[in-house]
């Protein structure tokens, strides 16, 4: 009788032991699953545009303004990024926070710097905060093909770390996500970091961001 019970217990536990061996079922590495909010603005031709139209692509959404010096300094990074990764399904979008009376300046800026990606106008701190990006410029959100936020950058982007994150998003994503870093803007003295909620798998920095006080205030 004891032998029979022993054999029964062995039979029950064998499947568990088998699944625990190398090559058995694996648990996916957790990634950020926070769904990005939709963003509806207008392009430079006055046409309505929506972030949801880019589902299926990796979107690098940058909030900026023509009066923001650090924003101007990081634009070449986004131009190079679009040139390098555009054919692989990566789309940079620049959402301007300039006031409506400055739209001509936005158009002039886009032509001067030969921006090779969509420029949208009408953004404000309301939209920035919906993406949990704070109120200072520049800030950037990275959105994966499924429409989930895969990274936030508060401050001037570092080209190398941004490219590494994009490469990771284009891969099978089995390896841990590489960290996102920022760099200090040229001629800008950083006075410290503002507090932000931390999200798993995301790095948030304030290096090089323009203060929201005085003339640097982003319209809400």
Structure write-up:
With 220 residues, this protein is an alpha/beta fold. It has helices spanning 2-20, 69-85, 103-112, 125-130, 159-170; strands at 40-43, 48-50, 58-64, 90-96, 119-121, 139-143, 149-154. It has a single domain (40-213), classed as Glutaredoxin (3-Layer(aba) Sandwich), CATH 3.40.30.10. Helices cover 29% and strands 16% of the residues. A seven-stranded mixed beta sheet has the order 2-1-5-4-3-6-7, with helices on one face. Strand 4, helix 3 and strand 5 (119-121) form a beta-alpha-beta unit. The radius of gyration is 23 Å and the shape is globular. The chain starts with a helix and ends in a 50-residue tail after the last helix.
Brief sketch in words of this structure:
The chain is of the alpha/beta class. Helix content is 29%, strand content 16%. The chain is built from five helices and seven strands; from the N terminus they run αβββαβαβαββα.
Q: What is the topological layout?
A:
Layout: H1 2-20, E1 40-43, E2 48-50, E3 58-64, H2 69-85, E4 90-96, H3 103-112, E5 119-121, H4 125-130, E6 139-143, E7 149-154, H5 159-170
Parallel strand pairs: 3-4, 4-5
Antiparallel strand pairs: 1-2, 1-5, 3-6, 6-7
Structural class: alpha/beta
**How does the overall form come out from the CA principal axes?**
globular
Adjacency order of strands in the biggest sheet:
2-1-5-4-3-6-7
CATH superfamily: Glutaredoxin
């Amino acid at each position: 009788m004891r032998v029979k019970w022993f054999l029964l217990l062995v039979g029950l536990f064998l499947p568990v032991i088998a699944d625990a061996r190398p090559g058995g079922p694996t648990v996916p590495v957790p990634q950020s699953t926070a769904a990005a909010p939709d963003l509806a603005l207008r392009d430079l031709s006055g046409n309505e545009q929506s972030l949801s139209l880019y589902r299926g692509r990796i979107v690098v959404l940058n909030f900026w303004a023509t009066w923001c010096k650090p924003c101007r300094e990081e634009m070449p990074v986004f131009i190079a990024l679009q040139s390098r990764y555009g054919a692989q399904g990566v789309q940079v979008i620049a959402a301007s926070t300039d006031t409506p009376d400055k739209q001509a300046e936005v158009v002039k800026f886009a032509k001067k710097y030969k921006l090779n990606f969509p420029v949208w106008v009408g953004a404000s701190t309301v939209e920035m905060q919906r993406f949990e990006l704070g109120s200072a410029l520049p800030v950037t959100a990275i959105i994966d093909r499924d429409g989930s936020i895969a990274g936030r950058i508060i401050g001037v982007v570092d080209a190398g770390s941004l490219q590494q994150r994009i490469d990771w998003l284009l891969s099978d994503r089995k390896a841990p996500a590489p960290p996102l870093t920022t760099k200090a803007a040229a001629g800008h003295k950083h006075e410290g970091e503002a507090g932000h909620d931390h999200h798993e798998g995301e790095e948030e920095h304030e290096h090089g961001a323009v203060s929201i006080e005085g003339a640097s205030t982003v319209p809400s």
